[in-house]
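Supplementary notes for students who missed Thursday's class. We covered one full example, reproduced here. Read the sequence, then the structure, then the short commentary at the end.
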Amino acid sequence: MPTYRTYTRRDILKIGATFGAATVLPAYAQTAPAKPLLTRKIPHTGELMPVIGMGTQFVLDIGNDTEKRASRIAVIRTLLDAGARSIDTAPSYGPAEATLGDLLAEMKARDRVFISTKFRAPGREGAIAEMKESLRRLRTDKVELMLRHNIGFVPHAEAAEHLAVLREWKAQGLCRYIGVTHSQDQDKANPRLIEMLQKEKLDFIQVNYSLAERSVEDKLLAVAADTGTALMCNLPFARAALFNAVKGKQVPEWAADFDAPTWGQFFLKYMLAREEVNLVIPGTDRVEHMRDNLDAARTRLPSAAQRKRMVEFIGNV
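Structure (token representation):
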């Protein structure tokens, strides 16, 4: 029988909350400064990017609730203070773009954030109008990354038209990087995405990837690396399905071999161990979870053999 650690993710986070304030501890017990985050280069430019970012779907649907807005500012500040900077959003995420724009303006932090957003309106004029509206909601005159959303099943002619618009925006300085996403029926869309990577010069691709959804490992990850396309991973916890699968279970003892004391780090480290992965964007509305996500990028990552064991473990829970 395998043995398990006695601490859950919640236990570790509670301990951190209890003992995290160095001012109440004697000098010999004070916490050492946090290790720097793992960074990887965006292939087409060599720009270094911390591998942990933040998604905003469902996270920023908070209206004018003062308490919730303050909590989201705290989460964003935790991300930025750690040296990370990527925040991903989209018009299809309800009020997320507008809320993000408001919060960054309140924080005076726009220049510290790498914003990625998306469009999916049909036609050239529709695409341009949607992208301009995103800039207005985000309170900015440009974004770092603009993506054509869910392109896997878009007709080829429309896809070509939208890629042309993206290149125009990049040439005009309205975005620094361009790319595409897909988040529906990922395994069915992968062949189309691979074809696009091989034919088009894209800076980024955003796909679903997690221990629960691994179809991109079959070929897409290798093609992204071969074509110099940065890979952004969406839904790293599979919309909480992974947490639900291990509810009530302890992180296995052998996860200590790659410094994963919590389930969140266990799941994130599985993806971060692949060098093709440039960025993972878990969504969270809690500071302690953001800290835990960031810690996944500060310590050892699992080997290929350990990743195989992780897959087998999750397959048996």
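Commentary. Residues 48-315 form a domain with the TIM Barrel fold (CATH 3.20.20.100). The radius of gyration is 20 Å. If anything here is unclear, bring it to office hours.
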